[in-house]
Amino acid sequence: MRHETPAAENVATTPTEFLNASEVALRLRVSRSTVYNLIADGRLPAHCNGGGKIRPRGYRVPASAVAEYLSGSLVSPTQTDAA
């Protein structure tokens, strides 16, 4: 008698695009150092794939996190009363 096991459910609904620090810097129009500082401050979530002597390298940032960071940094102009 053959027993069939249910297939594991795929929790990933959509494929996630990951960007390295240089690609994030291009999208944000900042330096790579700024990207590493944003990651270290916790303002930009990232996955660490490797290590380095001075600072861990090999960070990968989800593209959705970059889009969320940009949308959270929008500034609306304040209205000033003309005197």
Q: What coarse outline follows from CA principal-axis ratios? A: globular
Order of helices and strands: EHHEEH
What's the main sheet like? 3 strands, antiparallel
What Rg do the Cα atoms give? 20 Å
The multimeric state of the shown protein is: single chain
Mean pLDDT: 80
Q: Enumerate how many helices there are, as a single number.
A: 3
What is the distance, rounded to the nearest whole angstrom, between the alpha carbons of the first and last residues? 88 Å
Strand content: 5-15%
Helix content: 25-40%
Please render the helix and strand layout as text:
Layout: E1 18-19, H1 21-28, H2 32-41, E2 47-48, E3 59-62, H3 63-72
Antiparallel strand pairs: 1-3, 2-3
Structure, briefly:
By secondary structure, the chain is of the alpha+beta class. It has helices spanning 21-28, 32-41, 63-72; strands at residues 18-19, 47-48, 59-62.
Question: Would you kindly provide a written description of the structure presented here, covering whatever features stand out?
Answer:
Strands 1-3-2 form a three-stranded antiparallel β-sheet. By secondary structure, it is an alpha+beta fold. The longest helix has 10 residues. The protein contains three helices and three strands. The protein is globular, with a radius of gyration of 20 Å.
